Amino acid sequence: MEPKGQEILIRALELNGTGKRVLNAMKKVPRHLFVPEDMQSVAYADTPLPIGHDQTISAPHMVAIMCDLLEITEGMTILEIGSGSGYNAAVMAELVGKNGNIYTIERIPELAELARSNLERAGYSNVTVIHDDGSCGLPEHAPYERITVTSAAPEVPQPLREQLANNGIMVVPVGTRHQNLVIVRKDNEGNINYRTWGEVIFVPLIGKYGF
């Protein structure tokens, strides 16, 4: 572990305006356990890193931004599309606490197993990793108070809109060459509002409701 590197990262995120709860969660997650062994020296650099299969672990600042936008509180049930190496799920697991649950779906079997192994090694028991087509969501545990998508969709997938609980929030990158991070809010009556946060760059969402 590189505590100095982590300390510098957290300080930079704090200066960037990351909320206190998200900062505290990210302090507790050992990011070096979620990156390949040959990337250990840059585990706490604020940059995306390759994790194999043409996929990446998101830059810490992007994880922080998405978690802040989701307004996660303790005890929530959250659906994540795109487990990757499991890092983002670990941060959200800290935010929901022991009474909350994270369901995370990964389409690449090797990465699903990697995420499962990483999360177990890091001590997270409130995260369930599922190998499946994330663009279809996970209807058996719906509705979800929060949904986060870590790959860019051509449009907000209909199943995910349906599986979002009333008063829920979803954050999803949308677009092809030019992607925008979209914040989806569903009110108490099920009406949906969309707001664009800004431009982002993510790998494409592959699946029935993806590319």
From TrEMBL:
Chief location: cytoplasm
Keyword S-adenosyl-L-methionine found: yes
GO molecular function: protein-L-isoaspartate (D-aspartate) O-methyltransferase activity
InterPro entries assigned: PCMT (IPR000682), SAM-dependent_MTases_sf (IPR029063)
Documented EC number(s): 2.1.1.77
Localization in the cell: Cytoplasm
Pfam families to which the protein is assigned, alphabetical: PCMT
Top-level taxon in the UniProt lineage: Archaea
Keywords: Cytoplasm, Methyltransferase, S-adenosyl-L-methionine, Transferase
One cellular component term from this protein's GO annotations in UniProt: cytoplasm
Top-level EC class as recorded in UniProt: transferase
Active site: 58
Biological process annotations from GO: methylation; protein repair
Catalytic activity: [protein]-L-isoaspartate + S-adenosyl-L-methionine = [protein]-L-isoaspartate alpha-methyl ester + S-adenosyl-L-homocysteine
UniProt entry tagged with the keyword Amino-acid biosynthesis: no
The protein's role, per its UniProt record: Catalyzes the methyl esterification of L-isoaspartyl residues in peptides and proteins that result from spontaneous decomposition of normal L-aspartyl and L-asparaginyl residues. It plays a role in the repair and/or degradation of damaged proteins.
Family according to the record: Belongs to the methyltransferase superfamily. L-isoaspartyl/D-aspartyl protein methyltransferase family.
Protein name as catalogued: Protein-L-isoaspartate O-methyltransferase
UniProt organism field: Methanococcoides seepicolus
Gene: pcm
